[in-house]
Structure formats: C-alpha cells, structure tokens
Amino acid sequence: MVDSVSDRLGIVLPREACRSVVDAGLSALWLGPDEWLLLSANAPDSWVATLRTQLGDVLCSLVDVSHRQVALEIVDGAVTAETLLASGCALDLSLAAFPIGMCTRTMYDKAEIVLWRRAPDRFHIEVWRSFARYVEGLLRVAETEA
C-alpha cells in the first residue's frame, strides 16, 4: 500500500519513524504507523481533490486538516530556535538528538504540536488553529526572557 501511494503521489513516503522527505515542493512527515502528514507550501484550495484523483483506487484514507492547523517557523535570531523551543518542550532538540529532517508530535507547554527540524537553525511547527496564538505568545515571552 505504501509503495502504491508513493508512486501515485510522486514522493517516497518515509518509512523510518519520525523522519520526513521533501521532494518537488511536497513534504511528507511520518507521524505514526501508516500515518503521514503531507504539506505543500504553495498548494491551491483544490490540492486535496487533486490528491484524491492521484490516489484513485489505492486503498488508503486521505483527511484534509488544512483548516485545522497553522504553521509557524522558528529560526535562529538573537535567541537560537533550540533555546526558544526548549522553553516549552521537554525533548532534547540538539542537532545530535533531533537531526535535520526529524519530526514528531510533542507538547509545547500545554499545546500539542508537530515539530519538524528543517535546518540546523530552523524548525517548523504545525499547531491547531485554536492554540496558535497561545504558542506564539509563549514563544515571544521566551524570546524576551532568554
């Protein structure tokens, strides 16, 4: 099934836990057994319909969560991205423990997030829209206190 979905979408879905693949503007994040989060920076509103068409008769489930989530990018500035995120996340975010391409569901303070390391100095967060201002506010406080 995974091979069929990969072939139809044109991206090899990661099979290693907590890893991501980026290819031709499409990103696939492994979140759990048989669960991937697909992201596209420039996806039109018809993107999910296009994916459904591409998948055709492949036995899988495609759920559109685009209106549920907000994306935040955390990059090094006066304070490192690792330091900012460590203010509310218990994971070891050092480059050795959380390398480029690693992703996971975790908590930032009291909000569930998907955390993805895009570069040594850059993280991507997916957070439910209802928690986005809360997470952003905590990050801003952490930035001023660091």
Molecular structure report:
27% of the residues lie in helices and 32% in strands. The protein is of the alpha+beta class. The strands form two sheets. Strands 4-7-6-5 form a four-stranded antiparallel β-sheet. Strands 1-2-3 form a three-stranded antiparallel β-sheet, with no helix packed on it. The termini are far apart. The protein is built from four helices and seven strands. The radius of gyration is 16 Å and the shape is globular. Strand 1 (20-23) and strand 2 form a beta hairpin.
Key words describing this protein structure:
four-stranded antiparallel sheet; globular; three-stranded antiparallel sheet; 4 helices; single chain; alpha+beta; 146 residues
Q: Would you tell me the structural class of the helices and strands?
A: alpha+beta
How would a crystallographer describe the biggest sheet?
4 strands, antiparallel
Name the average pLDDT.
92
Distance between the termini: 47 Å
Helix content bin: 25-40%
Sequence stretches where pLDDT stays below 50 over 5 or more residues: none
Strand content: 25-35%
Overall geometry comes to globular
Strand order of the largest sheet: 4-7-6-5
**Oligomerization:** single chain
The string of secondary-structure elements, in order, is HEEEHEHEEEH
**Tally of alpha and pi helices:** 4
